[in-house]
Amino acid sequence: MPQSAAATHRLGASSGAAARAAGLTKVYGQGETRVVALDSVTVEFGRGRFTAIMGPSGSGKSTLMHCMAGLDAISGGSARVGDTELSGLNDRQLTQLRREKIGFVFQAFNLLPTLNALENITLPMDIAGRTPDPEWLELIVGTVGLAGRLRHRPSQLSGGQQQRVAVARALAGRPEIVFADEPTGNLDSRSGAEVLGFLRDSVRELGQTVVMVTHDPVAASYADRVVFLADGRVTGDLTAPTPEAVLDRVRRFDAKGRTS
Question: What is residue 166's three-state secondary structure?
């Protein structure tokens, strides 16, 4: 596995926050139908770190990720990726930002069935008119264990292998940050553990920044840090999490209506 590409990627990544929110508010509807999905959220996602976001259904965790990724417009406050403020960008600029600086992994694999694994991995760069870096692409493929499956179409791959293709696609363009929304939700425990391991390896070995929304304490334990949300607000965080520690926080929230 080539190492120089990984070293270059690490050296090119500055310290600090890869993304940050300050007083971020998201409101849906008006009047009687008005819902505050995010209520003055302030949070940073460290560069070269793996952060999990957890919270009960309706807590705002997916909304936070979508706002930070430029997929949903914010109602107030600030959302930044690197030094770029998202609220001041038009649709064309947001599209360019997502293509150049953000990678996505979703619960649904979102692979094109007519393309093989390699073509699915490079598709976003092909659409953007960018030429993949062969050395970096080889490193990514090796990291997610797909070297022998690149010519297979999605129908010839297991669910875990399809999600590995989706992870490789997210990493292939060297984004500043990867957002993963319940990436193991459609996988069995073994395949899910493999995908989480690959995300973990992308942070440890490639210097990638990953932010993952999950409801699973075991999945969250792969992260460096867990941020807890409830009712659209950040209620606490946990560093160096274990499944037991995450589950304890969740139970305490269920019992008290808050994390402590």
Answer: helix
Half-sphere exposure at residue 37, Cβ-oriented, CA atoms within 13 angstroms: 21
- Asked if residue 199 lies in contact with residue 171, where contact means CB atoms within 8 angstroms, the answer is no
Amino acid at 86: L
Dump the DSSP string for 173-202. Answer: T--SEEEEESTTTTS-HHHHHHHHHHHHHH
pLDDT for residue 7 is more than 70: no
C-alpha dihedral sign at 147, 148, 153, 157? negative
3-state DSSP assignment of residue 7 = helix
Do the Cβ atoms of 40 and 235 come closer than 8 Å? Answer: no
Residues 6 or more apart whose Cβ sits within 8 Å of residue 110: 166
Share of the chain above pLDDT 70, in %: 92
Determine the Cα–Cα distance for residues 65 and 83; give it in Å rounded to an integer. Answer: 17
Question: What domains can be seen in the chain, in order of their start residue?
Answer: 4-256 (3.40.50.300)
How confident is the model over 172-219, as pLDDT tens digits? 988 999 999 999 888 888 888 988 998 998 999 889 999 999 999 999
H or E stretch including 8? helix 4-12
Whole-structure pTM over 0.85, yes or no? yes
Per the DSSP assignment, residues forming a β-bridge with 102 are: 177
- Name the nearest CA neighbour of 9 among 227, 178, 218: 178
Supply the mean pLDDT for the chain.
Answer: 88
Segment 1-25 shows an average pLDDT of 65
- Give how far Cα 108 sits from Cα of 187, 200, 204, Å: 10, 20, 25
| Contact residues for 35 (Cβ-Cβ < 8 A; gap 6+) | 27, 28, 29
